[in-house]
């Protein structure tokens, strides 16, 4: 069983590498690399009113925040692109027709694909993270160890989208699986939208719907974990949940609190239970996908 | 593994599709009972939509039967141990074209659970058998459809299987390739292996198979040895010189009808045993028998006859 999983994981990686999707991953890497050499002239134009080290440090924090956002986005997009055609499309094209009759259980085929895609995406996330950290250091001369907490949390996005889309691909074509994954992402966006609307319109029902949406697709919880990952102990990289850090200029917690005080509070209230829910959510979809694949006719 | 006398055994195998939300169910295969003895080449025939591919997929465990049972090599369908002794070439396939022929076979060898030493020994052997040894380093993307079918056949026999299921194995091959596949099938039979052959090329089936089953609308309408299924010759064509009215009259007494066209005489007979008497009659009446050809029914004739006329 393990033998079969590893063979198919290796095959999935090899197959992904030869696809344009992997080329996209390489292009994304060059974007991070290119960022390092953008002529931003931070030491001249963006530090008005601050001493240079503080300003550069703040810019490094902002770059880390934005960079983690791009990693989660690109990771999720690649996850959908790699997983959407993994099962039904391969059945339709006749790729699986010579693999399924081999003396390996279908579980091994499903696990092998899931593992292969996630290994590849994990490598992408680590490489992008390294390039991001290196670019921030090159641009600002600052290193933020907490960035790895944010990158690790951003890595949950490709993991969740792989699990979700692979499950969809057990019964849907490439186009439909991708669409369902996009719909899931759209539903997740609704959580923040409903939350904001509930504040503006003062309708408690919308807040309830927002919370329900957060359970249906827990992307916001993962976003909170990126924030939490970037947050330093006792004051933090972003200063979330610890009040103003901002004696030294740009204060991210104040920025976040001004933009949306309740959201800031939600991030501050992020707990391990949220992470547990995210893992449980993925486990449920993984089990569902596996069951569907085992039961379906090929 | 259990050693049974049959390689494939099905009992009232049935597959229905649909039937939910008020729509009538479509029965692809109904009450299929097959018994394929070990060491034989068995042909599966039938018009499009007869249920051949569904049957094969049920045997492979790719499709779950609605009811009935199936056993491969004495084990229930889907059994991993039985699958290790099974080779399969599907009709519709797409291989990982970024792999070379050797890498492709190595991948499938590993999926079969073959050791590195066994793979190293078998891969050149099977590539030689399918005529691709010179292209072993070439990527599959460079292969023609026929060459891909050959490499597919190579993966089907890589593990030295006891049972080989070939679904349209010669559809993309030229006449030389077809002959090579026939030779491989004959070689498998000589080595005591069982082959289930699904092909539209009836001449291939006739040349290769010991037994056939003809499917129509998901049911077996004929099954047995080819010789037993084919009708006895009913028309004997002769070329005779020195014909006389007496000779023709004598032939008419042995036959149901006699048609004379120049030197050629076509005699419709009731049974095969009459043929030597026809020859003796011609010679006995002073005729010069230049040729005598019993017009035997071909598998194609049989197929058309039973598929067009028989109602399951």
Describe this protein's structure.
The complex is a heterodimer of chains A (298) and B (312). Chain A contains 14 helices and no strands. With 298 residues, chain A is mainly α. Chain A has one domain (2-295). Chain A starts with a helix and ends with a helix. In chain B, the strands form 3 sheets. Chain B has a 6-stranded mixed sheet, sandwiched between helices. Chain B is built from 11 helices and 15 strands. In chain B, helix 9 packs antiparallel against helix 10 (275-284). The longest helix of chain B has 16 residues, at 175-190. In chain B, 35% of the residues lie in helices and 28% in strands. The A-B interface holds A 3-4, 7, 11, 14-15, 18, 93-95, 97-105, 295, 297-298 and B 57, 60-64, 80-81, 83-84, 86, 88-90, 92-96, 98-99, 107-108, 110-113, 152, 155.
Please report the total strand number of chain B as a whole number: 15
* Series of H and E elements of chain B: EEEEHEEHEHHHEHEHEEHEHEEHEH
Radius of gyration of chain B: 24 Å
Q: Shape of chain A from CA axes?
A: globular
From the helix content, strand content and strand pairing of chain A, which structural class follows?
mainly alpha
Question: What percentage of the residues of chain A does DSSP assign to strands (E)?
Answer: under 5%
Mean pLDDT of chain A: 82
Q: Helical proportion of chain B?
A: 25-40%
Please list the strands of the largest sheet of chain B in the order they lie side by side. 7-8-9-4-10-11
* Rg value of chain A: 21 Å
